Amino acid sequence: MRDTNNVVPKKVLRDLILLTGASAVALFGAPVLAQTADTAPQPADTAPAAGSGEIVVTAQKRSESIQHVPISMQALSPAVLEQHQVASFDDYAKQLPSVSFQSFGPGQSQLFFRGITSGGDGLAFGALPTSGVYVDEIPVTTIGALLDMHIYDMARIEALSGPQGTLFGASSLSGTLRMITNKPVQDKTEGSLDLTGDKYGKGNAGGTIEGMINLPVAHGVAVRAVGFYEHLGGYIDNTPKSRTYANVYNTSDGPEGGTVTTSDPLTVNNGKYVKNNFNDVTTYGGRVAVGIDLDNGWKITPQLIAQHMHSNGTFLYDPAVGDLQVHDFTPDYDTDQWLQAALTIEGKIGTWDVLYSGGYLARKINSAADYSYYTVAYTNLPGYTRFTDSSGNQIDPTQQFSVSQKLSKHNEELRINSPASSVVRVTAGLFFEEQKNHSIYNYAVPGAATANFANYANTVNVYGDDLFLTNANITDRDYAAYAQGNFDLTSHLTLTGGIRGFIYTNTLTGFSGYPSYAPQCTFPLATLYSCSNNDKRSHGSGETHKVNLTWQIDTDHMLYATYSTGFRPGGNNRDKGALVGTVYRPDTLDNFEFGWKTSWLDHKIRWNGAVYYEKWNNLQYAEQAAGAGITNIMNVGGARVYGIESDLQIRPVEGLTLTASGAYNDAALTTNFGNFGFGNYAPTGTRLPVQPRFKASATARYEMPVGSVNAFIQASVNTQTSSSSLLGVIDDTVLGNSRGFTTADFSIGGKTGNYTFQLFIQNAFDTRGSLSHNAQISPADYENNAGLLGNSTAGYTRTLPIKPQFFGVKVGTKF
Q1: What is the pLDDT of residues 758-778, one digit of tens each?
Q2: 380 near 248, Cβ under 8 Å?
Q3: Three-state SS across 349-396?
Q4: Helix/strand/coil (H/E/C) assignment for every residue in 274-292
Q5: Are 74 and 33 in contact (CB under 8 A)?
Q6: How many CA atoms lie within 13 Å of 322's alpha carbon, on the beta-carbon side?
Q7: What are the residues facing 160 on neighbouring strands?
Q8: What are all long-range contacts of 37-42, with beta carbons under 8 Å and residues at least 24 apart?
Q9: How far apart, in whole angstroms, are the C-alpha atoms of residue 471 and residue 533?
Q10: Hey, how many other C-beta atoms are within 10 angstroms of the C-beta on 738?
C-alpha cells in the first residue's frame, strides 16, 4: 500500500481551478468585548456594520447584528485582537471563557466548548474533534492539530457555543470557531505595516514583521495580500541529567536450562540535547485574495493561504525538575506547513442569494518528542530495554518518538438564502467533504535495526529501528443536506427550525502494532508497506435538528429559547484484539438553552448571556488498557453539563470602556465508566476533564487625547479555576490536576496621524498557570509498573504552562 495523499487527483486539480472557499461576510464597527476603535476598512462585499457599534456576524449563514442572533456567541473584532496583541490560537483562546484546550505546543491543540471533552483526545487515529474550526466558509477541523493560523488583518473571530451541527456539520458537536479574514476592497489602495519586538521575561527575545496591501488592478478587480514573519524566543530549559537503566532480562542460564532473571545496568546522559530556552518558534507565511465584482452583481473571490511553522524543544515542563525545566534525552521539534486554496462565488438568482464555496487544504506535519520515560517505565520488566549490537555491546535503549503526517481536506458547499426582509426566511444547502490522513508513528531505539533481540519480549523489531510502528491511512467522507427556516409569528416573535441530514463513511487501512499484532507478516518488514493488519470501514447516517423561539422585545432587548442537537461520527479502532469493538459508535449532544441579548441606557451598557443544560450521549473515550499497547476509542455512557456564560460591556464616561466575560460549566458523568479498581474507572458524578468550572476575563481601557496623540491605557485580568486531566480517577491521579490561576496584562500607547504605537506586558507578575497536564506515554504504561517505579509519578507527567511573562513594543502604520 502506497501513500496516495502525495498525489493530487485530477478531479481535485480541476476543482482547484474553480475551487475553494473563503467568505463569510464580514466587517463591522466595534467589538462585543471592547469599545469602538479604528478597524480595518470594510470591503465592498462585506455586510455593513450595525448601528451603535454592534458587530455584524454570519453565524446563521446570513449577515445579522450579533445582538439579533439567538446564539450564545462572542466575536472578537479587529480592535480587540489588536488591543490584546493576538497573534495565535493561545492568545485569543484566553479571551473566550467557554473555550478550553489540550496541547503539546503551537499547532498541536485540541479545542473544546462548554467542557464537552472526555480527555485523551487528539490522537491522529482517534475520535473526530467535538468542535468545528473554520477559515471563512471553509472547515479546517483536524484531529489533534488545530490549524493555528497567524492572526493579522482579520475581520473577526467568532466563537459559537453549543451544538452548531444544523448549519456547520458533524464536528460542531460542542461549538464552532470561525476565523474571518478581511476581503479585497474595490477602488481603494490601502495598506498597513506593523513591527513588534518582544521578549519572555526570563527567556529569549523575538520579533514580528507584518504587512498588508490592497490594490485595485482593473475595473471590478482588487487584490489583497498579507505577509508576515515571526520569531518567538524560548523559555524552557533542557537541563543536564544522567540516569541508569536496570535493563532487566531473562536468560536460560539457570540450573538445567531454567530461566534466570538478571540485569545489565547502563548509564546514559542527555548532554547532546542540553540547552537553555530551547523552545523557540519561527513562523512565516501569508495570504492572497482576489476580489472580482462582475457587472451582473456576482462576486468571485479566490484565495490562497500558506504558512510554515518550525518549533524546537518542548512546551511542557516537568515540575519535578524545576520551574520551566525538563530533562529530555531525545530530539524535540515540530514542523507544520500548510496551504489552503479557496474559492467563493456569490450572487443572486431572482431575489435569492446564492453562494458556492469550496476548499482544498494540504498539510504536512513532522515532529519528534522525548519518549525516554517509556524506557524508564519498562526497564525493570524483563525483556523490554536490553539490546546489544553485533559485538555484544549494549545499545542505549532510550526510546525516541517521531511522527510524519500528510493531511488533505477537500470540501464544497452550495447554499441559498431567501430575502432577509421576508416574513419567512430560508437558508438551505448541500455539503460534501473528504479528508485524508496518512500518518507514520515511529517508536524507535537508534541501532535497533541491527540489534540482537534474543531476550526481547516482543521478539523482534518491526521495521528499521522501530520497535512499534503505525503506518496507516484514514479517509473520512461526509455528505449532507440542510435547511433552516425562520418564521415571524408576529413583529416581535420568530420561530426557527432547522435540520441537517448526513451520511458518513470512514475507512482505516494499514499497519499498527508489534510483530505479534500481525502473525501473517514477516518481521522485520522489508518496507514500510509490507504488512497490513487494518482494513476497516464504519458507515452511518442520521440527522441533527434545532428549534428556536426568539422574542425581540424591542430593538435593544431580546430573549430566546433553543433546543438543538449535535452529532459526531463513529470510526474505526486499530486493534482488533482489544476489549472494545473494532468500530465505535457516534455520540450525540442535546442542548437546552435560554439566552438574552440586551442593551441599556442608550447602549452605554450591553449585557448578553445564556444558561444551558447539555446531555452528552454515548460519549467517545480514548483509552489504552493495561498491556494493550494501542489506544482505542470506546463509547462509555453519558454525561451532562449545567452552565451559564455571559459578557458585559459598560461605557460609564467618555473614553472609558469596561468589559467582562465569563462562563461557569459543571460537567460530569451521569453513568459509571470503566472497571472498578482499574485506572480508567470513573463513577457517576466524576467531573469531565480539561474545562475549568469557572473562567473569566475583564478589561478596563481608557482613551484620552494627549497633545496630538490619541492615547490609551489598558489593564486586563484573566482567571480560571482548577481542572482535572483525565476522566479515569486513577489515570487522573497519575497526571494530576491543573490548579486555578489569575494573571494580569497591561498596555499603554496611542495613535498620531497614520501611526500607532504600544508598550505591552502579558502575565505581568509571571504567574505559572497550568492549562493542562499531559505525557507522551499513557497512564497505563505507568500503572503497569507503578510498584517498580516506587509509586512515584515524578518525571512522568508534564505541565503545559500559560505564556510566561512576555513584554514588548509594537509600532505600525496604515496608509
Answers
A1: 999 999 999 999 998 887 777
A2: yes
A3: ECCEEEEEEEEEEEEEEEEEEECHHHHHHHCCCCCCCCCECCCCCECC
A4: CECCCCCEEEEEEEEEEEE
A5: yes
A6: 11
A7: 73, 176
A8: 37/79, 37/82, 37/83, 38/79, 38/751, 39/77, 39/78, 39/79, 40/78, 40/153, 40/154, 40/155, 40/182, 40/192, 41/185, 41/188, 41/190, 42/185
A9: 10
A10: 23
Q: Which H or E element spans position 647? A: strand 638-650
Provide φ and ψ at 568, rounded to 5°: -130, 125
Please, what's the b/e burial string for 76-85 (b: 16 or more CB within 10 A of its CB; e: otherwise)? Answer: bbbbbbbbbb
pTM of the model: 0.89
Per-residue pLDDT, 784: 63
Distance in angstroms (rounded) separating the CA atoms of residues 773 and 771: 7
pLDDT value of residue 479: 96
Could you tell me the end-to-end alpha-carbon distance of the chain, in angstroms, rounded to an integer?
A: 54
* Local structure of 143: helix, strand or coil: coil
Contact 54, 42 (CB under 8 A): no
- Whole-angstrom distance, CA of residue 560 vs CA of residue 584: 36
Q: Distance (Å, rounded) from C-alpha 113 to C-alpha 131?
A: 7
Closest CA to 732 of 789, 689, 791, 683: 689
Return the bridge partners of 175, or none: 131, 161
pLDDT of residue 254: 66
Q: For residues 683 and 730, what is the distance between their CA atoms, to the nearest angstrom?
A: 11
CB neighbour burial string for 510-525, b if at least 16 within 10 angstroms, e if fewer: bbbbbbebbeebebbb
> Residue 735's pLDDT is what?
83
Task: Encode 516-531 in three state secondary structure.
Answer: HHCCCCCCCCCCCCCC
Residue 276 has pLDDT above 50, yes or no: yes
Question: What is the rounded CA–CA span in Å between residue 688 and residue 120?
Answer: 11
Inter-residue contact 3 to 406 (CB < 8 Å): yes
DSSP three-state, residue 572: strand
Q: Which three cell numbers stand for residue 311?
A: 518549533
CA distance 387 to 446: 11
Q: At 503, list the grid cell.
A: 451520511
Q: What are phi and psi of 493, to 5 degrees?
A: -120, 125
Residue pair 689/723 in contact by the 8 Å Cβ criterion: yes
Alpha-carbon distance 590 to 651, whole Å? 37
Q: Give backbone dihedrals phi and psi of 210, rounded to 5 degrees, phi first.
A: -135, 145
| 94 vs 444: CA distance, rounded Å | 37
pLDDT band of residue 104 (cuts 50, 70, 90) is confident
Per-residue pLDDT, averaged over 161-183, amounts to 90
* Tens digits of residue pLDDT in 355-392: 999 999 999 999 999 999 889 888 888 889 999 998 88
Q: Buried (b) or exposed (e) across 478-487, using 16+ Cβ within 10 A?
A: bebebbbebe
Indicate the pairing of strand 242-245 with strand 638-650. unpaired
- In tens, the pLDDT along 478-511 reads 999 999 999 999 999 999 999 999 999 999 999 9
Closest C-alpha among 535, 530, 516, 515 to residue 582: 535
> What single-letter amino acid sits at 185?
V
Q: What is the C-alpha separation between 369 and 238, in angstroms, rounded? A: 13
Query: Radius of gyration of the chain from Cα atoms?
Result: 27
Average pLDDT, the chain: 88
Q: How confident is the model at residue 40 (pLDDT cuts 50, 70, 90)?
A: very low
